[in-house]
Amino acid sequence: MITLIPYFSFGQNIDDLLNAETKVGRTYETAAFKTSRVINGHSVEQMSANHLDLRIEHRFGELNGGLYNLYGLDQASMHFSLEYGIKDWLMAGIGRTNINKTYDGFAKVKLFRQTSDNSIPVFLSYMGSTEMFTSHWTDPTRVNKFSSRLTFVNQLLIARKFNENLTLQLSPTLIHKNLTPTELDANDLFALGFSGRIKVSNHVSLSAEYFYDFRSNRSTINYHNAASVAVNIETGGHVFQLMFTNCLAMTEGGFIWGDSNGDWTNGGVHFGFNISRVFSFDKKRNY
Amino acid sequence: MTMKKNLLLILAIVLSTGAFAQKIYFTKTGKIIFDSTTPMENVHAENEQVTSFIKTTDGEINFAALIKSFKFRNALMEEHFNEDYIHSDQYPKAVFKGKILDFSKVDLSKNEPQKVTVEGNLTLHGVTKKVSTTATIHPENDKILAKADFEVTPAEFGIKIPSIVREKIAKTINISADVTYQPYKK
């Protein structure tokens, strides 16, 4: 009896025991994109609980402004926002852009996450936002209602990380504007976004984004779908996105609605950048 | 002595030697901290789900840590660590397999910290390197407490630090392990 106990465990190889105890199980995929935006539009990424993202976004003038406007650098539109992870699956943000002096607020909800064993093959998130422009009415003599200032955006984000380097995303989007530019325009727009990113090195990736607008009745004669390409550079707590885009606006009701979108074929393209800085307020991560 | 008392005595001996005779100790809640502090950025992560075994016949010791269990204060930093530096999808575990060289001089019946030297192979990011460090072993009742500190450089494990963040990440990373072993019962 006394000799039995040591004998029992003596023959065991502790390296085999270690392997048996640390099997890698099913895990959730992470880092489908570098940041919460692919370029202009949302990605399936969002802030973790108690993390704050301070974002500053700039779009310069059109490249075809020529040397006189220093290829657009003389003009700048901007959007800044504070975006917070309330839960790991829920984030909310508020922002403001100088285009029509517009405020925006959004919430993003993570519904599914892709798993390593493909039992869930995609990431799926919902993004809903409201935009309110506060610039003076263009026609003050008209009966102008407050509700006319509002735009509503509903968007599903469906992404698959095919491998470490490639992620593709579809973004079906429904936009409702209470007030359209003219009576010819429908109040509702359905658009489908196609976007993706390719990692070119550990810290640099390329991304592209295109929103196809299915509206048939719009007043804009030379409408151009939103199309953008960007380089994303991640440096620890910062993510920089440098882009060329035909969109001046940085909120969905602006760039997908697209009345001010330029024409890629004649240089109606803006240089721009997004800067994201993430701060952690997670007290549980008390290191 | 009566037969009953004899039996009790034998039982007592069996139970007490049972604790000493245990040859394998283990933990699944060991703690490993890594720290790279520079004036620009504190990169600090903790993993409290480290599995480790120690064999008290010859001082053989091993550790395994799932990379994704390292928790950072900044979740984004954690994501970048996994995705861009240590590639945890490809290399999900860090494993150390080694030996306490002077284990013969450790007295497991002495309830006090005892200095030892540990040497072995650390496998990280698909690269295996020999590491050696001093550690303390502290037997306490039927448990064994162990602590060790050592330094590694990202470069020796093939982990590239791009020039743009080089100021934020220290050249050498401190790794410390703090584990409490319990007798292993299969």
Q: Summarize this, please?
A:
Chain A is mainly beta and 287 residues long. Chain A contains 3 helices and 12 strands.
Total tally of structural domains of chain B: 1
Structural class by helix and strand composition of chain B: alpha+beta
Structural class assignment of chain A: mainly beta
Give the number of DSSP strands of chain A.
Answer: 12
Mean pLDDT of chain B: 86
CATH class label of chain A: Mainly Beta
Averaged pLDDT of chain A: 90
- The fold-level CATH name of chain B is Lipocalin
Broad shape of chain B: elongated
* Spatial order of strands in the largest sheet of chain B: 1-2-3-5-6-7-8-9
Task: Chart the SSEs and their pairings.
The complex is a heterodimer of chains A (287) and B (186).
Chain A: H1 4-10, H2 14-21, E1 51-62, E2 76-87, E3 90-97, E4 102-112, E5 123-133, E6 150-161, E7 166-177, E8 188-199, E9 204-213, E10 226-235, E11 238-245, H3 252-255, E12 270-280
Antiparallel strand pairs in A: 1-2, 1-12, 2-3, 3-4, 4-5, 5-6, 6-7, 7-8, 8-9, 9-10, 10-11, 11-12
Chain B: H1 3-21, E1 24-37, E2 42-55, E3 60-66, E4 71-72, H2 75-85, E5 93-100, E6 114-124, E7 127-140, E8 143-152, E9 173-183
Antiparallel strand pairs in B: 1-2, 1-9, 2-3, 2-4, 3-5, 5-6, 6-7, 7-8, 8-9
How would you sum up this structure, described in words?
The complex is a heterodimer of chains A (287) and B (186). Chain A is 7% helix and 45% strand. Chain A is mostly beta strands and 287 residues long. Chain A has a single domain (34-280), classed as monomeric porin ompg (Porin), CATH 2.40.160.40. In chain A, strands 1-2-3-4-5-6-7-8-9-10-11-12 form a twelve-stranded antiparallel barrel. The longest helix of chain A has 8 residues, at 14-21. The radius of gyration of chain A is 24 Å and the shape is globular. Mean pLDDT of chain A is 90; it is low at 1-10. Chain B is α+β, with helices and mostly antiparallel strands. Chain B has a single domain (23-183), classed as Lipocalin (Beta Barrel). Chain B is built from two helices and nine strands; from the N terminus they run H-E-E-E-E-H-E-E-E-E-E. Chain B has an eight-stranded antiparallel beta barrel. Chain B is elongated and about 80 Å long. Chain B starts with a helix and ends with a strand. The mean pLDDT of chain B is 86. Chains A and B meet through helix 1, helix 2, strand 10 and strand 12 of A and helix 1, strand 1, strand 2, strand 3 and strand 4 of B.
